[in-house]
Amino acid sequence: MIKQFFKFLLESVLPRRCRKCGQILTEEGELCEHCLSELNFIYPPYCRKCGYPLTNENVNSKMLCASCLSKKRTPFRLIRSALYYDEASKNLILAFKFMDKTENAHLLAAMLKVAAEDIFAKGVDVIIPVPLHYSRLLKRKYNQSALLAKELGKYSGIKVDYTSLVRHKKTKPQVEFSGHERIKNVKDVFSVAHPGNLVGKRILLVDDVLTTGSTLKECALALKKAGVLSVDAVTVARVCG
């Protein structure tokens, strides 16, 4: 009763606002009805391997996208994303990543939990965020992927490891590159500092946006080299098309 009273009192002084547009919320939740309706969630049908959205015309008996059909080997077991990366999701994610809106992590991690439902069903032992180089971490003051992983760990009850996967080389931001240049930019920049902690474990990588997948792939290769059993990945959004 006392807790409810103080909650009411606090919301009277500091009313809850939509994480995206700032409008005062009159109902439970973290987004207003309009902003929630604008978000484009990734629903089936999608590639059962990498999660890339499929149209009904593209669906085949194997439910694989053209890219996964052509690949013989991949370091991933599954990849999933919650949203299309578009104008509707961009502001929410960029505000979280670059404008100190760290409170958005709770909402975005909830989306990750739903998107990764089949990954959790297959089994996850450790959640690992994509790391930043220490120089960029000092400049930005926080790693958005680590904040997402922390909240996802709370939702799932699964341990989060922040130290084993290391970005040991400083690189330019991926946004400055496209296509094959992105692959070259992150080649061999990740390593595992404590392989003994991860041998035989099922790892779930967490990041904010999947564009070409180059960064996640390099993380997965480093983890596989260290002896993990499997690597899955989940992102808040992905670039499609």
Mean pLDDT: 87
| Shape field | globular
Any idea of the CATH topology of the domain at 71-238?
Answer: Rossmann fold
Q: What is the CATH architecture descriptor of the domain at 71-238?
A: 3-Layer(aba) Sandwich
The count of strands amounts to: 7
Uncertain segments of ≥5 residues (pLDDT<50)? Answer: 5-13
> Could you tell me how far the N terminus lies from the C terminus, measured between alpha carbons in angstroms?
51 Å
Treating each run of at least 4 consecutive H or I residues as one helix, how many helices? 10
Strand arrangement within the widest β-sheet reads: 1-7-6-2-3
Over all CA atoms, what is the radius of gyration?
Answer: 19 Å
Element pattern in H and E: HHHEHHHEHHEEHEEHE
Helix/strand/pairing class, anyone?
A: alpha/beta
Q: Quick one: biggest sheet?
A: 5 strands, parallel
The CATH class assignment of the domain at 71-238 is: Alpha Beta
How much beta, percentage-wise?
A: 5-15%
Residues in helices, as a percent range: 25-40%
